Structures are given as C-alpha cells and as structure tokens.
Please model this.
Amino acid sequence: MIGTLWFSVLGSIAPLTGLHPLALAAGSGVGSGSMLSAASGALVSGLDPEMAKQVLSIAAASNLLSSVLGALSLTFLGLPLAELLYKICNKGK
Model:
C-alpha cells in the first residue's frame, strides 16, 4: 500500500527529474500490479496519447520480465538455499 502511494507521487513529479518517460516506465514495472498501475498512471497523465501507449507497454513488459525473473530466481536460487540452510540448522538433531 505504501509503495503504491510512493510510486504515484514519484510518477507525478517525474517530468521534473529530466529522465525520459520510457526509462521511468521501465522502472515502474518492478513490483506488484497495483504499483505498476499507480506509477504508470501517474506517468501518462501529462503525456500525449502516442507516448502514453508506449509508456504503458514498456511498463507492462517490465512487469512481466521482473515477474518471470523473480519466479526463476526463487526456484533455482531460493529453494536450494533454503534446503541448505535447513540441513545446516538441523545438523545436530
């Protein structure tokens, strides 16, 4: 909930930072869907319709990519690490 509010405030002041809206859209795709909609919604509020479509598509692609990479890293890094820690912690039992 706090992240969504933060992203919406950050997205509304984004034109003042001097960063390109597509770069900000790629950054807004990291996180949950509610954070994506808050950040990209605030970003497109002051843009022309063509750039708004590009911003929304880049943000959606960034969200998809970060979700897939998160699931893969959880599967191939997180689970083996948790198994190793479990073996270490239960070594004396």
